[in-house]
Every structure is written in structure tokens, then in C-alpha cells.
Amino acid sequence: MLEAVDEGLLILGESGRQAIYFHLQNLYSLKKEDIPNNLKVFADGLRKIFGQGAEVIEKRTIKTLYNKLGINYEEKRKLDFLDYVENAKKNVAAL
Amino acid sequence: MLTIYKISLILIAGLALIYTFQGYYPDFMSFFSNAFPPVIAGAAVVSSGFSLQKYWHKAREHFSLVWICFTIGLFLWFVGEAIWMGYTLIWNIETPYPSIADIFWLMGYIPFFIALYLYVKIFSAALTKKVLLVSAITTIILSFIVSATLIAPVLGSEKDLITMVVDFIYPFFDLALFSVAILGLLIFLKGKLGKSWMLINAGILMDICGHLLFGYTTAQETYYAGHLLELLYHYGYIFFLLAFYAHTKEL
What's the ipTM? Predict the structure, then answer.
């Protein structure tokens, strides 16, 4: 998960990624290594920084995660970031 | 963080007072009107430069390019302001328009537009049809207002063709910036970066109004150094300065 987040945040380049990690830690006390266990805080943090733009980072993260897990990514309107992660967990558990 | 916003607010109010009571100090006003723009434009370049320093990683990264383009664009505008100051205060040309300064100002729009475009492009997947529609309608309405305000006075004036073309180029270049900047605002509106995009949009709107009034007043031959419309240009630079400051604080 952390690798997927790392790649998702790379959308703003290396310096942008470091800036996001810095702000997540500063504003929400969320350290990089704690993100996989605090995905809601992570998603909320992104929303608070980027507004609607957070969707783009989330989607990129999810696509990377699915790709790494070998799961087929299908976009569904009603699913949010956390739903996609839950789906991924279920898929991995079913294997 | 509040300090720079407070200073800017004081500056905005102070500038308004300086321009309002200029009748009491016409000589100073003539100097101030021409000497202040390079100062405030230079401050905006510095603010953008700090952002560039923070976000720069390598030239191949879009986000790094965004900030180098913003900085180059503002630097070219600063050069334009400095040349205008040279014309007016050193060579005593009252209104050097159009002049070499305009070449730099117009060139500045290219990197500025690229910066806005690259930034918004990164997040283009967040653009819904509704957002695109709002942006298109706003830009069309503004284009109509600009055209309706400028066409009659500029075409009816005794300006030469180049001056007329330049009169129209400025507000339409501003509108090109606005058409992209409004998309950024709508994407980031609900986030902390929304503040920065609001300030960028405010800066561009100031420039649209400033260029519109400049074209109109020069066509009517009522423009003079120290005209109230100059406040719009000054406020535009202040908003750009704050936009880049806000960006580095929020991200």
C-alpha cells in the first residue's frame, strides 16, 4: 500500500510528494509509514489540501495498488478511495 | 502567516489612499506611478522564486516546470515594468505605449499560460462537465464584456493599427490565462490550495480590468501617470505575490 501511495503522490514530482508528506505529518500527525493503517486520515488530508483534485491522486494510487496486486481495475462511480482499498483486500483474501 | 496578509492589506489600503489624494503631491505621484510597478512586480518575482526553490526537482518533472514558467512569466513582466520606468523617468516619455516594454509584457503571458496549463493538466481528470461548463460560460461572458467595452472607443479613436491591436491583445491574453486559472480554482476550491488559486484568479481579473481601462482611457486620451486604474495593476501583482506565498504555505 505504501508503495502505491508513494507512486500516487509522485503526480506532483519528487518535491511535491515530499511537501505532501510533510503537510500530512505536520497537520494530521500522519507519518509516511503510518499511512497504510490510517487511510481515512490520509484521504481526508488529501481532500483538505487539494479539494476535488484529491480524486486524481487517489485514483492514481488505487490504479498502482491494483496493478501491483495483479487485480483488474474497474472504475465505479459510487466507490471512494477506501472502498477500492477494501475491494483490493477482499480480492487478495479470496486468492 | 497572518503577517504577510496584514502587510498586503495595509499596502492595498495605503496605495488607495496615495492615489486618492494625489492632487496634493502631483510631482511625487508622477514619480511613484512609474517607479512603484517594478518594485511590486519584483516582489512577485521573488515570491514566485521562493516557490520555485521549494518545488524544483528536475526539469523533466511537470510540477518543476510549472514553477519555472510562473517565475519566468513574472520576471518578463518585471522587465516590462522596469523598461516602462526607464522610458518615463529617464527619457521623459510620458506614455510609452506601445513600446519595447510591451514586447516583454506580452512575452510574459506565454510562460504564465504554460504554467497554469501544466498545473491544471496534472489534475485534469478531476474536471467534470459541470466545471468545464462553468469555466466556459464565465470566459465567454468576460470576453463579451471586454469586446463590448473596447471595440467602439478603440476603433473610433485616432490610434494607429499596432496600438489598436495591442489594446485588444492584452485583455484577450488575460482572458486566455483566466480560462485556465478558473479551472484550477474550481478543482482546488474546497481545499487549502483553493486560497492560492483564488488569489491567482483575482490577480488575473485585476489585470483584465486594468488593461480594459487602459485601452479605454488611452483611446479617450484621458490616461495620465497616476490614473486610478494603475491600482488594478498594483493589486494584481500583490495578489500574485500572495498566491505563490499561500501555495508554499499550504503545500
Answer: 0.89
